[in-house]
Amino acid sequence: METWRAERESVLAESNAGGEGRGSLQEGSRYDPWAIEAKWQRRWEEGRVFEVEADPSKPKYYVLEMLPYPSGTMHMGHMRNYAIGDVVARVKRMRGFNVLHPMGWDAFGLPAENAAIKNHTHPRTWTNNNIAEFQRTLRRFGFSYDWRREISTCEPEYYRWNQWFFLRMLERGLAYRKKSRVNWCPKCCTVLANEQVINGYCWRHEDTLVEVRELEQWFLKTTAYAEQLIDDLKLLEGSWPDRVITMQRNWIGKSIGARVKFAVAEVAGAGEIEVFTTRIDTIYGATAIILAPGHPLVGKLLEGSPARGEAEEQLKTMRLASVKAEDLETAEKVGFFTGRYATNPFSGEKIPIWVGNFVLMEYGTGAIMAVPAHDERDFEFCRKYGLPVRVVVQPTNGEALSGETMTAPFDEHENGTLVNSGPYNGLPVDDAIDAMAAHATAKGFGKRETTYRLKDWGISRQRYWGTPIPVVYCEKDGIVAVPDKNLPVILPADVALTGEGGSPLAATPEFVNTTCPKCGGPARRETDTMDTFVDSSWYFYRYCDPHNDQAAFDSGKVGYWFPIDQYIGGITHAILHLLYSRFWCKVMRDLGLVTHSEPIARLFTQGMVLKGGTAMSKSKGNIVGAIDMAEKYGADTGRLYMLFANQPEKDLEWSEDSIEGAWRFVNKVYRLVERHAAVLRDVDARAVADLAGATEKERKLLRKTHETLRRVTQDFDVRWHFNSAIALIMELHNEIYAAEPLSEGVRPEVRKEVLELLTLMLAPMTPHLAEELWEMLGHTGGLWIVKWPAFNAELAKEVEVEIVVQVNGRVRGKLVVAAGLSEAGVVSKALADPAVAHHLNGKEVVKRIVVPDKLVNLVVK
Fold first, then answer.
1. Residues 827, 806: contact at Cβ < 8 Å?
2. Residue 452, C-beta contacts closer than 8 angstroms, at least 6 positions apart
3. What is the pTM of this model?
4. What's the first-to-final CA gap in the chain, in angstroms?
5. Confidence of residue 10 (pLDDT cuts 50, 70, 90)
6. Rounded Cα distance, 598 and 266, in Å
7. Which of 63, 62, 107, 105 has the alpha carbon at shortest distance from 82?
8. Sheet of 810-818, strand order
9. How sure is the predictor about 852, in pLDDT bands with cuts at 50, 70 and 90?
10. What is the spatial distance between Cα 475 and Cα 116, in angstroms, rounded to a whole number?
């Protein structure tokens, strides 16, 4: 910090000396962002400028950035998200909207617990210290939050309502407990997500093999809303990124097909293997059944099998190196033959039963029929292990396929006719699917079925720093819900944290031992805590009514503010967070708490801030601290750079040279306005609609200013091209600067109008600087009461435009002409252009196609 203070003083000294360095003010005036920013932040706070209440008489706008997880130091990668949201909030306020723009903290979670253990402190202390630092950073950048609405998910006032929602779901059968297969670290004594298993080992303990166990876990029944979740995606089309909608649709994974039973041959008590297939028409081409490594029949099939010894070793290896769903397309297919067979219920053929690493227990039935001639993954697997490839669907048009010679599967659905399929030969695929599904149903070995890739949400976590699950276990009454009147179930403060040995709550007798709310007898509390996605699935509702101690929120207040008009966050949250939020909203709707079905009207996913080609991250050692940048350059310079470096949806590479450029620009703007402020303070600015009496200098400045205002307004309202808006403002500044001295040929009222509009256009992006300039220009009220300016349509017309000239549709030249030039005038200039004339070469022009102010196409013989 002392280094930045010293540099700051050096910059200011250089500025006063009129040097040409980074802080040069040339005329000797001084831009001191640190003093200016502190001044206006104090005024905003004292004036409670950004505090807002529901007001049905005003149009509302709810803009929200995804709440941060408070860990480590806020870096400039974080700042991009919040800078984008703040521009939107400020523009919407200036456009007359009642803007809700809150902030809070996603404060529970295993990383905080691990950090607390490592640093010998309590997770609450660790978390609250980080929150204080995060808040200091956000305030330092002047983001326009209503801080009265701040929430922290680790506070009982918040997580009480997590528990209340859980109980409502428990009453409706949407929360339930069951045994499930989980990744278990015997050293952490906790469940691990698939992403936390690295090559079969725990991500925290590289020497500890992860086990697959069956544990009693709590689940929320997201599958009860699977159909609604996929159907309601159509409500979001055009308002959410197409990529996110596609990711959610694929994650939910609706499949319409049939469930078919293959009887296991010659293994007593093995029963049947069920598979789900969307292509029952290809069942005569099944040359193997492939089971997931975790399929419950695998052990039974290996009993007494001649392949047992080798198979069990392969099975162990396969389970340790389990393939994740997202890696299925690229992972190497590995498998082994169990030595057993199953009977195809249609053909009666016995086909081998294999185990394959690319079949996942959590999807479908954990078993597939391999039809290599008509499925890419099956083809790759069967070719590798020498299993037969049998064509049962030939293309309706084209050469006949041969299983021996084909190099890729034929998986087209629409263009196929069945062959080698007994009584179904000659049927088109769709007709065969209907007939074969009906036959399976009639014979009792199959049925039509719709399945979803989506699975119920497992929320149990064997850790301390999370929401306690509000149930107790009684020997007499079983699972008993904690009554609402006893909420919240408080997370105890005095708990031994070691990171090993199971849930810390389970080793805390004062927490575990309780009485049954139903019979009054001895009972023990649930010691698992909730997944932190629970906290973030509904937090944005609490912002509407953050201090309510009688309910999660007042439905009337939520009815005014919802849905969220604009949500901003990273693409990494496209699946779980956003899907769980949509699920939670539908549950609340069915509880009668809200009337809408989707919580987020519009979604924007910003690009990442990279340094050295990778996203900023403390673990990668490539972060640029946000506070450091504010101390070095001022917050407005940091904001401007983040918005200017690239379009907001695209990644940007951090550049110290570029932020220096942003610093120089804000200095230049300050100097420009400061130079004229004293003279213009008491001048009444007015638009000069009639340019008849204006000087050429005034005419040029006013046209450029209003044209810039028109285009910047469009960039804010329509496209969110903040980078191009800033570029336009920079062009305007340069034109004003080039017109100096403005005192010659430019009346004071015109000067003031131009400088005021320049200031207002900058206000959403560099708010501290803009407030200071506005005051310098003689205004006593802050910019928070100023409306976004309207451009003069006549003045905003483009004076000149660039016209593309084509000959027979190929670009042959470009013209700069007066905007609005007639078709005849455009054609005349195009014909006279030497570059175009060269391509005409005396040929007859038979047609002229003119798009006004855009293009002319000359069609020649």
1. no
2. 223, 226, 230, 252, 253, 254, 255
3. 0.86
4. 73
5. low
6. 53
7. 63
8. 810-818, 800-807, 855-860, 845-851
9. confident
10. 36
Per-residue model confidence (pLDDT) at position 325? 65
Nearest to 463 by CA among 41, 173, 110: 110
Chain segment 197-238, per-residue pLDDT in tens: 777 788 777 788 888 788 899 999 999 999 999 999 999 999
Question: 821 CB contacts (<8 Å, ≥6 apart)?
Answer: 829, 853
Mean pLDDT of the chain: 91
Residue 634 pLDDT greater than 60, yes or no: yes
How far is CA 773 from its chain centroid? 36
Q: Which of 691, 457, 668 is nearest to 580 (CA)?
A: 457
DSSP state string for 58-123: S-EEEEEEPPPP--S--BHHHHHHHHHHHHHHHHHHHTT-EEE---EE---SHHHHHHHHHTTS-H
Of 580, 646, 553, 662, the closest CA to residue 607 belongs to 646
Tell me the HSE value of 88 on the side-chain side, using a 13 A CA sphere. 25
Question: pLDDT tens digit string along 403-450?
Answer: 999 999 998 878 899 999 999 999 999 999 999 999 999 999 999 999
3-state secondary structure of 367: strand
pLDDT digits (tens, 9 = 90+) for 783-823: 999 999 999 888 887 767 789 999 998 899 888 887 778 88
CA gyration radius for the chain? 34
Chain centroid, CA 721 distance in Å? 19
Backbone angles phi, psi at 481, to 5 degrees: -75, 140
3-state secondary structure of 221: coil
Write the CA distances from 682 to 291, 644, 748, 772, integer angstroms.
83, 34, 10, 16
Cβ count near 776 (within 10 Å): 18
Q: Burial-class residue 415 by CB neighbours within 10 Å (0-12, 13-18, 19+).
A: middle
The pLDDT, as a whole number, for residue 435 is: 98
Q: Cis bond leading into 504, ω under 30°? A: no
Phi, psi of 425 (to 5 degrees): -55, 140
Q: Cα–Cα distance between 466 and 526 in angstroms, integer?
A: 13
Specify the residue for token string 């190099």. Answer: 407
Residue 534 C-alpha from the chain's centroid: 17
Beta-strand runs (E) in 239-315:
254-265, 272-277, 288-291
- Report in angstroms the alpha-carbon separations of 809 from 847, 848, 860: 12, 11, 10
Which of 625, 782, 557, 729 lies closest to 52, judged by CA? 557
How far is Cα 393 from Cα 382, in angstroms, rounded to an integer?
A: 18
* Cα–Cα distance list, 248 to 270, 582, 586, 610, 749 (Å): 37, 11, 16, 26, 55
- The amino acid at residue 616 is M
DSSP sequence for 369-387: EE-GGG-HHHHHHHHHHT-
User: Hey, how many other C-beta atoms are within 10 angstroms of the C-beta on 822?
Assistant: 11
